[in-house]
Design brief:
heterodimer; A: about 180 residues; mainly alpha; Rna Polymerase Sigma Factor, Chain: A; Arc Repressor Mutant, subunit A; 2 domains; about 0% strand; B: about 375 residues; alpha+beta; 6-stranded mixed sheet; 5-stranded antiparallel sheet; 19 strands; about 15% helix
Chain lengths: ~180, ~375
């Protein structure tokens, strides 16, 4: 019996093994999407708990990774939306120059040429961030992105193109 | 301005490198050990189904017997309709009306608890084969299934999302003791909040009887009814079991989490999942005003009982000092008019503020939250 099937049947040790194999990659994905390490950690933890709870509803074991990835991306989107709501509640007027909350930037990065790109990325919608991370960080091909998001391949392709265009526009604005 | 693939990858790698996975695996696995898994809806085996049907039938029969016996013993005419409050009780009970009834014909002490008499919300599933799970108002309640609920004893309740996107953010849990038969003995308590994709809390109900528990939060309005039997001879300390012990003033929420309204509807309409509540009166709803509400959707067309409970939403204490306590507010009970399809009822909410209104029948509960003007 495979790990997924055992975990689906309530075997916590099997689930622990599944988590051990994936937690670092999932956390890196979440951190790349969200930016803030603490929020990313929280989103990853919540995603893994959701995966545990919802596992009995997964019918095909070989879809586990796509399904788990979808849950993680959804959770990251939710975290960003909540952050946006929180920011708009707490800072209604002062941050008129920026539509997104601050990103923490280390001293070494002050003169880094990536800084405008980083800020541009922070301007992106959650969906666009997720698409770019899936493709450029996780290395997923268009068909794999389509499977994870449960959308047609053509749609995945155009959304990825649009996400990239959005990043370029944001970079233009930042520069 | 163009960005090449290397720049994007380099950016994303630097963001991902901020990740710190230390201790995360352990935390997740420990949390999983305490979290029941969602089991797909299963048909209960035939003997279980029969036992459940028998329990429901026995409950309804007991309810009718108690209702008639009490009504006769206090000199009122027996119930003539299918509503829990029909016959002896007035169709609308405000705190003032309740007080008047108390003075004239209702015993001060609570009515005797009759096992099996509660309109317990039907279970949707048995999580892990033992834990009763009820899906109501878009969230899943996992009710302590280790044994019958007992007064003064803490029981574990889990509130979980029904979709991966959902966060169960609960500002407060309302607990109202339901009337049994024609007698109303309002007891109203509030329990502190919790949030996350799901959370588990301990709740100790102070007295035997039928209790409606209502979770209210920014996007949560959900109720279930549980039955609580007599407590043990030597109960554990109330505080350790999260049993309210004292009365405290209710603190209003910063923002009343009102139910979503249908925009552009001919009359004011609130949505609760598949149910919709309508308020045909175009005037502003103010405290003390008699208001007609119509609830329709998944409610039963012909139910042996229907009941509406309204209770004020609020917390006791603030921030981290929130606690469980009785509140002075008396819940409002009323009975919908019998009929098929949608149900009409008249409700008078005596004070301004945030109110949760819950409809109960044998197959459904539906809750909305409204903000009443002064």
């Amino acid at each position: 019996m495979g790990l997924v099937e055992r975990a689906r049947n309530g075997d916590v040790d099997a689930f622990a093994e599944l988590v051990a194999r994936r937690v670092e990659a999932m956390l890196r994905t979440a951190t790349a999407i969200i930016g803030d390490p603490e929020e990313a950690r929280e989103a990853t933890q919540e995603s893994l708990l959701t995966i545990w709870r919802e596992l009995p509803t997964l019918r095909m074991d070989d879809r586990f990774d796509a399904w788990a990835g979808r849950i993680l991306v959804n959770r990251c989107r939710l975290a960003l939306k909540r952050r946006g709501r929180r920011a708009s509640r707490e800072e209604p007027l002062e941050r008129t120059g920026r539509s997104e909350p601050h990103t923490i930037v280390g001293p070494d990065e002050v003169f880094d040429r990536r800084e405008p790109l980083e800020r541009a990325f922070e301007r992106l919608e959650p969906d666009d961030r997720a698409l770019l991370v899936m493709h450029h960080l996780e290395g997923l091909q268009i068909a794999e992105i389509a499977e994870r998001l449960e959308i047609p391949v053509g749609t995945a392709k155009s959304r990825l193109f649009n996400a990239r265009r959005a990043l370029e526009r944001a970079l233009e604005a930042e520069s | 301005m163009t960005v090449d693939d290397r720049d994007i990858r380099s950016l994303l790698l630097s963001r991902a490198d901020r990740a710190d996975a230390q201790g995360l695996r352990l935390a997740v696995v420990e949390a999983a050990r305490m979290t029941p898994q969602l089991r797909p809806l299963v048909r209960l085996s035939s003997p279980k189904r029969q036992a459940r049907l028998l329990r429901v039938a026995a409950g309804i029969a007991a309810l009718a017997v108690v209702s008639v016996t009490i009504a006769l013993s206090i000199g009122l005419r027996p119930p003539s309709g299918p509503g829990l409050n029909s016959g002896a009780a007035s169709p609308t009970s405000t705190p003032e009306a309740t007080t008047a009834a108390s003075a004239s014909n209702v015993p001060v002490t609570p009515p005797p608890y009759v096992p099996g008499s509660c309109p317990v919300t039907p279970i949707t599933d048995l999580a892990g084969g033992v834990a009763p799970e009820v899906v109501a108002g878009g969230i899943r309640w996992h009710l302590d299934g280790t044994g019958p609920w007992a007064a003064g004893v803490g029981h574990k309740v889990g509130l979980f999302a029904t979709s991966p996107d959902q966060v169960v953010d609960v500002s407060t849990i309302l607990a109202e003791r339901l009337p049994i038969g024609t007698i109303q003995t309002p007891l109203s308590a509030r329990y502190p909040r919790g949030d996350g994709p799901g959370f588990i809390f301990g709740i100790g109900l102070p007295e035997p009887g039928c209790w409606v528990l209502t979770a209210v939060g920014p996007a949560v309005r959900s109720s279930v009814v549980v039955e609580v039997g007599p407590g043990p001879a030597n109960p554990p300390s109330a505080e350790s079991q999260n049993v309210p012990t004292g009365q405290a003033p209710l603190v209003a929420l910063a923002q009343c989490p009102t139910s979503p309204e249908v925009s552009g509807a001919a009359v004011r309409t609130w949505l609760d999942g598949d149910n919709r509540w309508q308020d045909p009166d175009p005037k502003e709803w103010t405290a003390g005003m008699k208001r007609k509400l119509v609830v329709g959707g998944r409610v039963s067309s012909l139910a042996p009982y229907e009941l509406v409970v309204a209770a004020r939403v609020g917390i006791v204490g603030s921030g981290d000092s929130q606690r469980s306590a009785f509140v002075a507010d008396k819940p409002v009970f009323t009975a919908p008019a019998p009929g098929s399809g949608s149900k009409a009822m008249e409700v008078i909410l005596p004070t301004a503020g945030c109110w949760a209104i819950t409809y109960l029948d044998p197959t459904a509960t539906s809750t909305i939250v409204v903000d009443i003007a002064r």
